[in-house]
Design goal:
mainly beta
Amino acid sequence: MILGNEAPKMVNGATTILLDYANLDTMFSQGDVIENVSPIDGTRTYIIKGDYSEFKVPINLFQYGNATNRKNKFLEVYNQRKNLVDFYPHRDGYPIKNEAGNIVKFAIVDINLDYEDDDINLEVLSIHVKSTGYTDISKGLV
């Protein structure tokens, strides 16, 4: 892949959170666009201000083995929920950057536990992160 091959990760200062067993649902370029429609002839014009990035990351907790390992992974992620993080779609690649090549911070906007195979065991940890500024996906190619 042009962005990397391995699972994603988040970095907050010296803390690195590896997101093994994750399935990435990506929206690399969510346009921030202003649309103007002429009241006279209906002609549309667009002002493209930039692109935001957004990722939904479901993690298969059941693959972490016993209940202690699952709980530890959940707490590792959950404890970052009020922090801004650097997000790497693939840990062997680069973090998401802006047009100037600077790393863009991401906010963790949702953390949920979901059921996978049954209604008793919470087996999937879902993380939703959104960029705090405009991004340029071309700056993260490996």
